[in-house]
Amino acid sequence: MRAADISNVTPDLDRARHSLDGLSVGDAFGNRVTWWLDHHPARLPPGPWTWTDDTHMALSILEILETFGRINQDALAAAFVRRFTEEPHRGYGGAVTLLMQMQHGESWQTAAPALFDGGSYGNGAAMRAAPIGACFWTDPAVAAAEAERSAMVTHGHVEGRAGAVAVAAAAAIAAQSSPPEGEDFLLATLPFVPESLTRRGIVESLEIPGDPGIRGPVQRIEAVASVAGSHDLVAVTRGGDLLVCKSEKDWVCQRLPEPGSPRSLAAHPVEPWIAVGIKQRGFEDPRGAVAILAIE
Question: pLDDT 10s per residue in the chain (296 long)?
Fold first, then answer.
């Protein structure tokens, strides 16, 4: 991760407030629409759209940024507990145990790492990290560092913290006047994310093909194969991912045990249904594949 120096960074509280507005609307919409669309796919759910603990805890983040100009962990823990005590019905889930422990006097330094036998690696800290990125958009390294400080109060596990860091860094980068797009956006975020499954997921996402009808040719697919007895396609990426295509826009990504090549599929020990008579031939394909492998 890049080093952060907050001393020369001026917090942008207006942007943080705007980010919280967006976060709260998205939170409330997602909370309402999760079950609604199963029954009413063509209509938006009626109001009110109630927000959850994600917004509730993000309000504490903004409060601390407005008060201190950065994340003060002890004050943030106290704000989390105060808001939880006032409105415990916001859907706190696994955080209830932690917040009740702090409510009864246990410090976050002891309670958070002990939660779930090693600390929470859930996405709660990431869900409330965007306003931090907006607040410190002029320096993504500072945004990442402050997001990690905020996450430590509730998430003792590195994965729980890495998610918050990734979201805050991405939010800061997105707030630039001419932010990068697509793969370049993910690549710009990576230097701020610590080594973790979260970081690995970002790296692997760079290998996922886009929609050929919308985003143009996919350059990272090495080969596409058809599977005997079905209309499915199988693609192998340069990173060794196995992509099973159920339709033109529905790709399911699996990981090969070792980085593979198109011909390595012929002897793949884990997915034997692929391994029958591969024959390679040239083919012009809109997905940008260099070869089509016909499995017979």
Answer: 556 788 889 999 999 999 999 999 999 988 888 777 777 766 778 888 899 999 999 999 999 999 999 999 999 999 999 999 999 999 998 889 999 999 999 999 999 999 988 899 889 999 999 999 999 999 999 999 999 999 999 999 999 999 999 999 999 999 999 999 888 999 999 999 999 999 988 988 887 765 443 333 333 444 444 443 344 455 554 444 555 554 444 544 444 334 344 443 433 334 433 322 222 333 333 232 222 333 33
Residues β-bridged to residue 278? 295
Backbone angles phi, psi at 253, to 5 degrees: -95, 130
Q: At 221, phi and psi to the nearest 5?
A: -85, 130
Whether 291 and 280 have beta carbons less than 8 Å apart is answered as yes
Coil, helix or strand at residue 213 = coil
Q: If one looks up domain 6-205 in CATH, what number appears?
A: 1.10.4080.10
CA-nearest of 226, 224, 228, 248 to 237 is 224
pTM of this prediction exceeds 0.85: no
- How many other C-beta atoms are found inside a 10 Å radius of the C-beta of residue 117? 8
294 bridge partner residues = 226, 279
| First and final C-alpha spacing in the chain | 48
